[in-house]
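Sequence only, no structure available. Ideas?
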Amino acid sequence: QVQLVESGGGLVQAGGSLKLSCTVAGSDNYAMAWFRRAPGKGREAVACISRTSGVSRYSYAVKGRFTIAKDNTKNMLYLQMKSLKPEDSAMYYCAARDHLYTAGSLDENEHEHWGQGTRVTVSS
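Reply:
I predicted one. C-alpha cells follow.
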C-alpha cells in the first residue's frame, strides 16, 4: 500500500515562491505527478516525472515557473513554485502511478494513489 502525504502549502504573496513536498511511504519507486484543484473547478495536472530517469513534463500554465523533482533515496517528491500568481491558488495533490509504469503522466486517470492535499493560497 502506498501512502502519500503532502506538506509545504501556505499563504504567499503574488510573485513569491513556495516548495511543496510529498512523502512517499511504500516499497517501490513510482512515476509521480502533482495535480491541483482550485475552488469551484476541476482537478488539473501541474507536472509529472518519470519513475527513475527524471524526465518531467509540465502543464502550459506552470511551465517555466514550477519545477518537479524526485529523490528516490529519500522517497520524496517536490514541487518548487516560483513567480506565483493568484490563479495558482488551489489544493495541491501528489499522485503516484502503479509501480509497473516508468513514464510520468499528466492524466489523472492514470494514477492509482493520491495524497490528501496541501493548500496553496496566493494573495494579490
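The radius of gyration is 13 Å.
Hope that gets you unstuck.
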